[in-house]
Model the fold of this input.
Amino acid sequence: MNTAEGKWLIRGINAVIGDNVVRDAAVAVTDGIITKIMTEDALPDAVEGTIVDGKGGWLLPGFIDLHVHGGFGADFMDASGEAYDAITSFHASRGTTRMLATTVTASPEAIAAVLEAAASYRSGTMPYASLEGVHLEGPFISELWPGAQNPSYISQPRLDWVQAWNTDYPGLIKQLTLAPEKEGSAAVISYLAAHGIVAAAGHTDARYEQIEAAVEAGLTQAVHTFNAMRALHHREPGTVGAVLSDDRIYAELIADGHHVHPAAIRLLVQSKPRDRVILITDAISAAGLGDGSYELGGLDVDVLQGVARLRQGGALAGSTLTMIDAFRFVLANTRLSVAEVSRMASGNPARQLGLQQVTGSIEIGKLADLVLTDAAFSSVIHTWVQGRLVHDANAGHVY
Done:
């Protein structure tokens, strides 16, 4: 095997190239950049670099998870480099190449600690999946729809807090989830939009008209659509009705079969443009581990048969989902093509983060954020982040 530094040739694959699938494809990478896309019959006789035989598997753009709390026993609220290594390593082994460190509703001090830890982590090498920034889920959410968020820390929207966090850590906050019906939310949403931060509706009792007003103010996303939000009614469409009908809103989706029924998933993808659905995991520290007792935001969580619920009240408490599982579930339960599901897992979140020019799809000149799976999407064989191999199933997991 030729192992020239910085060069890869991934061959014998079905590759998602843009919005199409190329069979019997080969993709070349040099110094972290995709340099050539060709078919097997066009390969030169002499090839430089490490050759990977995909054996008829799939090469996909790396998954981008905008909403993930943890994994493999660690939580982003732990606010430590060791925890962040555990999370980014585990999810890289399941195909995620970029993610947002997602908080829970907590004290301002705890949130600031996550911001400090994330900024410190990003200043280093980041050996596994890339931590693109922070998603603040709360604390400006509805008391009526706390889900698994700790109600003790729910707050009215505080523009001064958001301004201080963004001033202290410029560019680090990429998304903030709030209930747009709460007094003071409009000013926060306008500030977020003006500073390039995704304003998202979640854990909300907003009526249809309130969501529409929030969109006019700059709101562009709905967090875990259908979950912890005012439901659809034919005389008051609610939050869900606004998300389904307004093409300006990106809709996050937890596709694990527990949070959202397959029929509702089909309703969502039939209602929304293909470029407005984003697959997420909402994974907690239990992801990658077995059933047992865990914690989320200071609340006790029990995981049984892979489903996480609060010990008190039984509300779903995040998930144990990974992006490859979500990808496979949507593919199996809708009529969407591989390329369409890939867009939801990679291209659409890249666009929301403003990264579409450099990642989110397999194109010449883009970063080599790549995932190689088997033919059935049942396992991830390799994961590359900017052309660097961060997961090799043949050599054992990286975590």
About this structure: The two ends are 26 Å apart (CA to CA). Confidence is low (pLDDT under 50) at residues 1-5.
